[in-house]
Design a protein that fits this description.
Number of helices: 15
Helix content: 25-40%
Strand order of the largest sheet: 1-9-8-2-7-6
Radius of gyration: 24 Å
CATH class of the domain at 261-390: Alpha Beta
Largest sheet: 6 strands, mixed
Order of helices and strands: EEHEEHHEHEEHEHEHHHHHEHEEHEHH
Strand content: 15-25%
Shape: globular
Number of strands: 13
C-alpha cells in the first residue's frame, strides 16, 4: 500500500499533497559547492551552543539530526563538516520553489521554507501524477530533490512525504519512492500498525502517558475509549489524538497571506558585553531582514530589537516609524538606537532584529529631503542584483550603519 513509482496513481486519490525538500539547507549548500557532495555535512553553529539546522544523509546515517546540539553531533560523527548557513540564499531558493508549486495550483500553504501543502482537487491530472511532475520540475529548475505525500487529509499527506524519502547511509541516500500515496478508503488500515509517535502532537511526554496505558500503535489509540483517553492526556488533546488516529483531519489547505512580520536572530558562541560588538551583529541582521522585505515587495513601520541575556532573561524594545522602510541602513540605525537604552554589561547571548506592520512600500509618503535626494533604495536594489547573481556573500554590510553618503535619503521615491 502507498508506494508510487509511476505517474498514474489510484483512481480515488486524495487531493492533498505535502511537498517536503530533502535536507534543504544542505542541498542548497552542495549546489554552490559541489565538492561537499558525499560528505557528512551539517548547517548550523559548530560551537558549544550551536545546534544542527539541517544534516546531510551521510551525517544522518551516524544518528545526526536537526535540532541536535552541535557537540553531540560531533561525538556521533567526528568527521562532520559544519557550515554556518546562508538564510538569505535559502529564502531565495524557497521563494522560487513556491512559485513552481503555485504553477500547479493556487492553493499552496507553506509550512516553512522547505515544505508546503497543496490542494490539487481542481487539477486535470491525478494527484500522484502531479506529485511526480512537481518532483521533476523542482529538481530540473533548482537542483533540489523533494518528497511528496498524497492523501485525503493533511496529516496523512505529511506522513506520506516522510515515507517517500530515502534512507540515510554513510554513502548517501538510498531508496525512497519519491511519491507516497495513502489511497482513499484505506487510511485506517494504513495507520493501524504504525507507531503512535507518527501522530502530530505525540512528543516524549504524551508517548510516555500512552505507553503506561498500553497504547503503542495508532490502531490501539483509535480503538481506545475517548473518555478514558481524556483522563490520561486531557480533553482537548485526547480529541485531537483520537481524530488523527481515525484519519479525521478536517483542516483545509489555506493559501498563505502576506507575512505579518519578518525577523532574524543570532546566537553568539560567547556572551557579548558591549554595544559596539552587538552593533556589528545588528547591522548584519538588519541587512538580512531588509533583503527579505525587498524580495517580498514589502516594507515595515515598527522595528523591534530582541535581546536575550546570558541568564536567558529576554527583553524586546520597539519603535514605530512614520513611514515604512525596507532599507537595512535604516533598520540598523533604529535598532541601534533601541540598543543604546539597554545595559548589556552582564552579557548578551542572543540578539534579533524584526520588522512588523508590513505594507506595500509604494504607499509611503516622502519628506522634502527624501524627494530631492537619491535613495538607499537604488543602492539596495543594485546590491540585490549582485547578490542574486553571485551569492549573498558577494557584498557584505559594513559595521557603520549610522554613516551614510552625504545627501542620500533612505525612503523610496515615487
Amino acid at each position: 500500500m502507498g508506494n508510487s513509482s509511476g505517474a498514474g496513481g489510484n483512481a480515488r486519490s486524495g487531493s492533498i499533497l505535502h511537498v517536503d525538500m530533502d535536507a534543504f539547507f544542505v542541498s542548497v549548500e552542495q549546489l554552490r559547492r559541489p565538492e561537499l557532495r558525499g560528505l557528512p555535512l551539517a548547517v548550523g553553529g559548530p560551537g558549544t551552543r550551536g545546534v544542527v539546522a539541517s544534516a546531510s544523509y551521510e551525517a544522518r546515517s551516524f544518528g545526526v539530526h536537526s535540532a541536535m546540539p552541535a557537540v553531540q553531533a560531533r561525538r556521533l560523527c567526528p568527521e562532520i563538516v559544519f557550515l554556518p548557513g546562508d538564510h538569505e540564499l535559502y529564502s531565495e531558493v524557497s521563494d522560487r520553489i513556491m512559485v513552481i508549486l503555485r504553477s500547479f495550483t493556487p492553493l499552496v500553504e507553506p509550512l516553512s521554507v522547505d515544505e508546503a501543502f497543496l490542494d490539487v482537487s481542481g487539477a486535470h491530472d491525478s494527484p500522484v501524477a502531479i506529485g511526480h511532475l512537481i518532483r521533476r520540475q523542482v529538481r530540473d529548475d533548482e537542483g533540489i530533490n523533494c518528497a511528496v505525500g498524497v492523501a485525503a487529509v493533511k496529516f496523512l499527506a505529511k506522513l506520506g512525504s516522510k515515507l517517500a524519502k530515502p534512507e540515510p547511509t554513510p554513502q548517501g541516500p538510498t531508496g525512497g519512492v519519491g511519491v507516497f500515496e495513502v489511497p482513499v478508503g484505506e487510511e485506517r488500515a494504513f495507520l493501524a500498525p504504525r507507531p503512535v509517535s507518527d501522530i502530530w502532537g505525540v512528543g516524549p511526554a504524551t508517548l510516555a502517558h500512552l505507553s503506561r496505558i498500553g497504547i503503542s500503535t495508532i490502531g490501539e489509540l483509535a480503538e481506545y475509549p475517548l473518555d478514558r483517553l481524556a483522563a490520561v492526556v486531557g480533553n482537548a488533546h485526547s480529541r485531537h489524538l483520537h481524530d488523527l488516529a481515525n484519519a479525521v483531519d478536517p483542516r483545509p489547505v489555506v493559501p498563505n497571506t502576506a507575512p505579518k512580520s519578518m525577523s532574524r536572530e543570532q546566537t553568539f558562541s560567547r556572551d557579548l558585553h558591549t554595544h559596539e560588538d552587538l552593533g556589528a551583529a545588528i547591522v548584519a541582521l538588519s541587512d538580512s531582514v531588509a533583503s527579505r522585505l525587498r524580495a517580498a515587495e514589502l516594507a515595515g513601520r515598527t522595528v523591534t530589537l530582541k535581546i536575550r541575556f546570558g541568564d536567558f532573561n529576554t527583553i524586546t524594545r520597539s519603535h514605530t516609524l512614520t513611514s515604512p522602510v525596507d532599507s537595512g541602513v535604516v533598520l540598523a540605525r533604529e535598532a541601534k538606537r533601541l540598543l543604546e537604552a539597554v545595559d548589556v554589561a552582564s552579557g548578551v547571548r542572543l540578539i534579533g532584529v524584526g520588522v512588523s506592520e508590513l505594507e506595500d512600500p509604494g504607499q509611503r509618503q516622502l519628506s522634502l529631503e527624501d524627494a530631492s535626494a537619491p535613495s538607499w533604495h537604488d543602492v539596495d536594489r543594485a546590491v540585490d542584483r549582485i547578490r542574486g547573481r553571485f551569492g549573498t556573500e558577494a557584498i557584505q554590510t559594513g559595521g557603520t550603519a549610522d554613516e551614510r553618503p552625504r545627501g542620500v535619503g533612505w525612503t523610496r521615491p515615487n
